[in-house]
TrEMBL record:
Gene Ontology cellular-component annotations: cytosol
Gene name in the database record: folD
Keywords from the UniProt entry: Amino-acid biosynthesis, Histidine biosynthesis, Hydrolase, Methionine biosynthesis, Multifunctional enzyme, NADP, One-carbon metabolism, Oxidoreductase, Purine biosynthesis
Gene3D superfamilies referenced in this protein's UniProt entry, alphabetically: Leucine Dehydrogenase, chain A, domain 1, NAD(P)-binding Rossmann-like Domain
Organism of this sequence: Flavobacterium laiguense
Coiled coil (UniProt feature): none
Superkingdom assignment: Bacteria
Record-linked HAMAP family: THF_DHG_CYH
EC number: 1.5.1.5, 3.5.4.9
Domain Tetrahydrofolate dehydrogenase/cyclohydrolase catalytic: residue ranges: 4-119
Catalysis performed (reactions): (6R)-5,10-methenyltetrahydrofolate + H2O = (6R)-10-formyltetrahydrofolate + H(+); (6R)-5,10-methylene-5,6,7,8-tetrahydrofolate + NADP(+) = (6R)-5,10-methenyltetrahydrofolate + NADPH
One Gene Ontology term from the biological process aspect of the record: methionine biosynthetic process
The protein's name: Bifunctional protein FolD
A GO molecular-function annotation: methylenetetrahydrofolate dehydrogenase (NADP+) activity
Length: 295
């Protein structure tokens, strides 16, 4: 069993991006600028956005963090997004989800300029991804692809089972694993809450990608020997022994499943760190695309 070490791989990617930024500076170019927009005071969201800002500093990007109160109206948020769309200093920006209930998430995602949508959530970018065109791939699926590629995990002709059909991970992952090229060229089964006999399907899988958010859902008896397991789930589970009062747990019963795997991602330290690294990579791509358009 080999760990797919997202923490180490993300650090490697950040070093590569930092070297790229140094080249840009040496040539007198403008360094990439990533903005993050957060509405409200959700603890997990604030931590995550803070990590993104630190990552920008680490690689030499400029970053802007915009905080808006939880009482912000949809109109106010859309106005702020319009400002970011029109700000020529900013290469890419993200709107941190979830949003307060008074705001239509879909309307907000649609309002982001696709050329600055480094999260890859805009329908235009999703469509381009599905058609194998150059675009922003959502950061978490992009991170999974990068892990598979850098560890040389064979995907061609394999049976990939994706558990969960969210627009952020499951749905794009099912498209990407079936695309031509590497990683890809696998036969994909997309499972969800209405799928019958999931265990029967997962035991036939060469690669399992689970993004359910149900702690320890995937058990050893659901996995065949030699399978590759990618755990996207991150759930805080109450734990009185831990000083924080909780532990971070994935979708996979790691202790038992890891004994049967050829490759597996840990939680934490697997897919999570890769998401932020790939957001930086998308921001670098946004800058390159702007230069190509002579903007």
């Amino acid at each position: 069993m080999q760990l797919l070490d997202g923490k180490k791989t993300a650090e490697d990617i950040k070093c590569e991006i930092a070297a790229e930024v140094e080249k840009i500076k040496a040539q007198g170019g403008k360094v990439p600028h990533l903005a993050a927009l957060i509405v409200g005071n959700d603890g997990a969201s604030l931590t995550y956005v803070g990590s993104k800002v630190k990552a920008c500093e680490r690689v030499g990007f400029e970053s802007t963090l915009i905080k808006m109160p939880s009482t912000t109206s949809e109109t106010e948020l859309l106005k702020k997004i319009k400002e970011l769309n029109e700000n020529s200093e900013i290469d890419g920006f993200i709107v941190q989800l979830p949003l307060p209930e008074q705001i239509d998430e879909q309307k907000v995602l649609m309002a982001v300029d696709p050329r600055k949508d480094v999260d890859g959530f805009h329908p235009e970018n999703f469509g381009k991804m599905a058609l194998d065109m150059t675009t922003f791939i959502p950061a978490t699926p992009f991170g999974i692809l990068e892990l598979l590629e850098r560890y040389g995990v064979e995907t061609q002709g394999k049976h990939t089972v994706v558990i969960g059909r969210s627009h952020i991970v499951g749905r794009p992952m099912s498209i990407l694993m079936g695309r031509k090229g590497f990683p890809g060229n696998s036969t994909v089964t997309l499972t969800h809450s209405y799928t019958k006999n999931i265990a029967q399907i997962t035991t036939q899988a060469d690669i399992i990608i689970t993004a359910l958010g149900v702690p320890n859902y995937l058990k050893a008896e659901m996995v065949k020997d030699g399978a590759v397991v990618i755990d996207v789930g991150i759930t805080r589970v109450a734990d009185d022994i831990n000083p924080k009062g909780y532990v971070i747990t994935g979708d996979v019963d790691f202790e038992n499943v890891s004994k049967k795997c050829s490759f597996i991602t840990p939680v934490p330290g697997g897919v999570g760190p890769m998401t932020i690294a790939m957001l930086l990579k998308n921001t670098l791509l946004a800058r390159e695309m702007r230069i190509a358009r002579n903007e």
